[in-house]
Amino acid sequence: MDGTLVGLVAFAALIGLLAIRVPIAFALAGVAAVGTFVMFAFRTGAFNPDRAWRPTSSLVFSNSFDLIHSYDLSMIPLFVALGHIAYKAEITTKIYHAARVWLASVPGGVAMASVFGCGGFSAITGSSIACASTMGRICSPEMLRMGYDKRLATASVAAGGTLGSLIPPSVLFIIYGIFTETSISSLFLAGIIPGLISLLGFILVIWLWVKRDPAAAPAYPGTITGRERLEAALQAWPAVLLFVIIVGGIYGGIFTATEAAAVCVSAALLIGFAQRMLSVRDVIDALRETVVQTTSIFVIAAGAKIFVAFVALTGVAGDIVGAVQAAELNVVLLMLAIAAIYLILGMFLDPIGIMVLTLPLLVPLVEGYGLDLIWFGVVVIKLLEIGLITPPVGLNVFVIGSVVGKDVPIDRIFSGILRFLSIDILVLVLLMAFPILSLLIPNSM
């Protein structure tokens, strides 16, 4: 049986299963298993199931086993645990409190502090959804109580929460690195400048919004003394320390990404207990949440690994690469087509689902054009970041909507998000046009 035909039918079946809300891990593994069975059963033309059982089971079990025993995958539970422990110890939230104190007198300062808080939270946890959920509970209700425009109070946190995709450590970068066999440490470093540009872009949106409509952000009540500013800055030192360990340790060649994660978890525990902000119960709760979250990621990753092996077996990726190269598309048109695919999928699927669905086909294509996979990884993560706030299924928007409840309808949040989407598109164009923005730090190692 023709492998390309089986591969294309399998992709169509996978999209259909995802459309009816079949869990992505089961959809990936199920389609791959059935597709592999069909290919081997019809290998000689006539249907012979006895010939298909052994290779199908080998593909399913060997690939999932190899993935779960991957050394790189071990950093996911470490970074997830770091995020939960740092939150329990109030390390992450102190970044927001420090930014709020320093920016209190600036028009729209609390909204700007929310974005800085999201950036700081992301620099430790690496999860956009967790960032939006946690910071949304802290920032949005406070801005609503102060009389902020409902769109600004919610959209700023929803957009700021996406920074967890780019600013290291990022779970999406880890998964991308595993499936493309690229350096995860280099990917972390490549995300720093794009992440900071995105953060500053969101600050610019808030500044322009408030300048045009001062009523959208009432002045902060009261005054902040210099002593209060100094105390707030000093209280944020644990978060700064953890970020320096991650980035400085990797850049300086002191740690691998996995080692940096382990050191940061230990440091967060020591700081939490030393400051009496952590209890044994908090640690147990954090570890329980870590197990639930990482199990979900591992199951999806295992299903994706099985599907990648199936795609390689069919040869459909090579056929698509050959067809695109025969069409003689230039790099600009290729990247525009890839961006369109990701933006469309981002309206309906979650980031991990999009990545594991598209990478088996796009990575060989990108390699065929001689493009840098580290740079391409940053572009992909930025596209996934945009998908988190793109209607109709912007996951971060619905997370914020669940936090604020009926006070702010979803359509009002999306209305405010459009301004942040515009700057995201501009940053995406800059990253695609100037690869040096992503490669400057990794290339300097």
From TrEMBL:
Keyword presence, Ion transport: no
Domain of life of the native organism: Bacteria
Single GO term (MF): transmembrane transporter activity
Predominant location category: membrane
Swiss-Prot/TrEMBL keywords: Cell inner membrane, Cell membrane, Membrane, Transmembrane, Transmembrane helix, Transport
Keyword Transport (UniProt): yes
Localization in the cell: Cell inner membrane
Domain TRAP C4-dicarboxylate transport system permease DctM subunit stretches: 11-435
Pfam family, one: DctM
GO CC, one annotated term: plasma membrane
TM ranges: 29-46, 67-87, 107-131, 152-179, 185-210, 230-254, 260-278, 290-317, 329-349, 361-380, 386-405, 417-441
Membrane topology: Multi-pass membrane protein
NCBIfam families for the chain: dctM (TIGR00786)
Family: Belongs to the TRAP transporter large permease family.
Subunit structure: The complex comprises the extracytoplasmic solute receptor protein and the two transmembrane proteins.
Function according to Swiss-Prot or TrEMBL: Part of the tripartite ATP-independent periplasmic (TRAP) transport system.
Full protein name: TRAP transporter large permease protein
Gene: siaT_7
